[in-house]
Records
---
Amino acid sequence: MARKKRETAGVNASSMADIAFLLLIFFLVTTTIASDKGLNVLLPPKNSDQKQDVEINKRNVYSILINSNNELLIEDKPGRIGQIKRDIKKHVRNYGKDPNFSDSPDAAVVSIKTDRGTTYEVYLAVLDRVRAGYHEIRADYIGEIAGRTITVDHYLEIAQQKTEEHRIWYEAARKKFPMRISDAEPSDGKAIAK
Amino acid sequence: MRLKKKKKADPEIPTSALPDIIFMLLFFFMVSTVLRETELLVDVKLPKATQIEKIEKKSLVSYIYIGAPQPKYQDKYGTEPRIQMNDVIIQPRQVQRLVLKEKDKLKEEADQIIMSLKVDKDAKMGIVIDVREQLRDADALRVNYSSSKPNSEL
C-alpha cells in the first residue's frame, strides 16, 4: 500500500486581509492627521523693570483697530480686510515717497489693536492678510536675488530653511524686510513682536 | 480536425496580494498619524488662514486649547470659552505655571518651546490676550496660532 504523500503544513492565510482591514480601520478611527500648521509669531519678551515706550513716528505705523463688533479702523478710517495686503505692500516699500506711509522697510511697523470682544477669527484673518503682504514682498525680493519668479507658496517653503541656499535667501529677506507686527494691548502700553 | 476549445479562465481577480496591500496602507497610516494624546473637553473649530507655516520639531510643541466646553461638560464648565491644557480645564492665571512645567520637561531646550494655540474661531480676543500675557510671563515666546488651509475642513 502506497503511503499518501504528506501535505506541506501551511497556515491558512485567507483571513489575513480581514485582520489587516480591522487594524487599518482601528487606526483610521483613532488617529488624527497631524495638523500642526498655523501662523508662527514671536511674542515680545516681558521686561517689567524697563518699560519701553519707543517713540515711533506716526507715518511709520500702519495701524489697524478692530472693535468688538469686528469693524475695522485702518489708519483712522473705516476699512476692509480686503485692502490690508495691498496697503501693507505700499506701506513697507514706500521709502519715504508718500508722506502717509513709512520712511523705510526697517522703520515700518504694523500695529494691530483689538478689543477684548473682538472675535478671534477676525483678528487672525487680519494677521493673515498682514503676513500675506509681507510674504509677497519677501517673495519678490528673493525672486530678485534668485533671478526668477518666486511665488508666496514657494516663499513659505523657503522659510522652512531646509537647504543652505534657502537659509541665505530667507535671512536676506528677513533682514531687508523685518516683519514688525505689534499687538497693542487694549489697556497697558505697546508690545512689538518681531 | 476539430479544434478543442480551451476552457475560458475564471474571470476572477487574484486576491492573494490583498493582505500585502492592506498592510501597506496600515503601515502608512500608522507612520503618518499620531495618536491623540489628550481628550478634548472643549470644541475647537480652527479658523482659516492662507499664510500657513508648518511646525518642524514636534517634540518642542505644547498645546493650549481655547473654546466653548463640549455639550456634555457644559453643566460643569458653562458655555463660555475656556482654556484647556493637558486634559484639564484651567483658569487663565494657571497658564504660566503649567507652561513652566512643560518647559521643565524639555530640559536644555526649554527656551525653544513652541506653544500651539488651538483657538476656536468664535472665541473672543479677551481670553486670547490673557493667555498671551501669561505666555510672556512664562517666557514662552514662540507661538503658533493654529489654523487650517482655506480648502480643508480639518
Note: The mean pLDDT of chain B is 84.
---
Amino acid sequence: MKTLLVAEYRDGKLLNSTYELVAFAAQTGSESAMFLVGDNSIVPQYNGTLYLADSNKYNEFNPAVHKQLLLDVIATEKPDMVVFSHSSYGWDLAPRISLALGAAHISEVVEIDAGVPVAPVCNSKLRRQVKGNTAQTVITLQAGTFGLSDEPSGTPTIIEINTDSVAQTEFYGYEEAEASGVDLSKAEVIVSAGRGIGKPENLGIIEELAKALKGEYGASRPVIDAEWVDHSRQVGTTGQTVSPKLYVACGISGAIQHLAGMKKSEFVVAINTDKDAPIGEVADVLIVADLKQFVPALTQKLSA
Amino acid sequence: MKILVCIKQVPDMESKFKISTTGTWYDDADLAWRMNEYDEYAVEQAVQLKEQVAGSDLTVLCIGRKQVQETMKKALAMGCDRGVHIADDVAHEKDPFEIASIIAEFAKDKDFELIFTGMQSQDRGSAQVGVLIAELLGWPSISTIVDFNYADGKIDAKRELEGGIKALVRCSTPALVTCQLGLNTPRYPTLPNIMKAKRKELLTAKVAELLKVEAKQDTAKIYFPEKRGGGLVLEGDVNDLADQLIKILKEKTAVLA
C-alpha cells in the first residue's frame, strides 16, 4: 500500500503527531511520502520524499489553498491512502480532499483490523469497522493511537511545491491559551470533576477530597464549559496534559479528549454510576457508586 | 438574512447500548434521545445571529425518522422560525458524504447567507458533514469555532486548536461554520416559547428527492471494544468501598504514605 502522510506545522514548530503518521505507515508496512505546509529549516526526521510548501507564503490555516497544494501532490504520488491526524488541522482539511478525490473518508481511526479501518462510535463505547468502496481512501488517525517504536530519524528528500490557488478565508494570528493559574502538571494527586457532579454546589466535595489527598482539583470539559470551574483547571486535549501519581476521576465518562490528557497518570481511580463508561478503559480501579455519597465517605475516612 | 442550522438527534451517551440485529449499528430500542450536544451550540449561535440582524429568517433542518421532530421542537422553542424535516428511516446507514449531499441539495438555491452545524455528532463523530456541505456549495467554511462575530457580510471567528490555542479567522458570507462545545451558553426553552414552537411551521421533505449520490463507505461491523485487562471494578456499600479503596491506595501508590 502507498500512503501520503499529511504532517502538521504550527507557530514555528513541527507537531509531534507527524511522527504518529510515520508510525502508522511503518505499522501497516506501507510505502510513504509526506506533505507539509511548513518551514524548510524545521523539517521532520524522516526517510522519504517530503513535498514542502512554505507557510510564510501559504499561511498556517488556509484550507482552500492547502487543499490545492495537497491535491497536486496526490495527482503526482497517486497514493492508495491519504493519512491525516484527527486534529483541528486534519479534520478540517481531510473532508475537502476526500470530496475532491471522490474517495471514502474514515474519521478518527484507532486501528487497522485485517486491512479494515476501525473507528469509535458513541464516545468510544462502541467500535465500527468501516469499509471504503473507492480506490483511494482518506483517513484521520486518533491522536496517541499509533505510537512510534523508534526515535524519529532520517533526512527527507525535499521537493518544494507551489500553487496559484486563491484563499477563501483569512487567517490573521493566534490567541494563546489563557495563562494558567494552576500548573496541574506538577501535582502528585489530582481529583477531577466531570459532568456527573450534576451541579456546581457539588464541587465542594471534590475540593475536599483533593485537600484530604494533598492534591489539586481539576475538571473535564463539560464542567469548564458550564463555567463551574476555571479553564486553567481543565484536563484534556484543549486543557492541560497531566501525569500525577494518582488521578481520581469523579463522574467523568471518559471522552477521548479527556483520556488523552490524563492516561499517563500512574494510578487511576474512577468513580462512576455507569459501569460501561469509557473511563473504565484506563482506570486501575472503577468504583461503581454515586459520587455524591462515595466521595464524602472517602474524604471522611482519609481525614480521620 | 436567511440562516440555516442543521441538527441531529442522538442517543444519550450514558445509555446502555446494544448491538442491532444487523450487527452494523446500535439497537435503537430503549434509548433516550436528545439533540446532539454540539448542535445545541449551533442553534444558539444561529438564534443570536437572527436576533442581531433585523428581519432574519432561521430554518432548522434535521434528517431522520418521525421521532426527530421532538428534537426539532426544542430548536424551534429556542428560537428557530421553521423546521424542515427530511424524512428518512435509514439515515443511520448513510455515510457523511450522503448526508452532506442531501443538505447541500436542499440548501443550494435557497439564498442562505449562513449555515451553522455542530463540529461533529456524538454518536458517529466523523466531523465531516459541515465542511462537506460548504465544499459542495463552493462556500468558505470555518470549523471548530469557539467564538463567532458577524458584521456587514463578514464573519470573524476563533477556531479552537489543541492545547487551548485559538486561530483567528475571517471570511465573507455566504459561509458555513461548525460549532465546538463552549461557543456560547445554549438557552433553555421557556414554557411560553415551547407553547409557541408548537404552532411554528414544520415542513417535511422526502429524502429520495434530495439524495442523488451513492455512499462511498459502509459499516462492516459494530462491536464493543475489548476491556483492557487488570482494571478492578468495585460495587457495594459506599463505606466498605471507601475502606477497600484506601487499602488499595496504600498498597499500590505512595500518596497515602
Note: Chain B has one domain: 2-210.
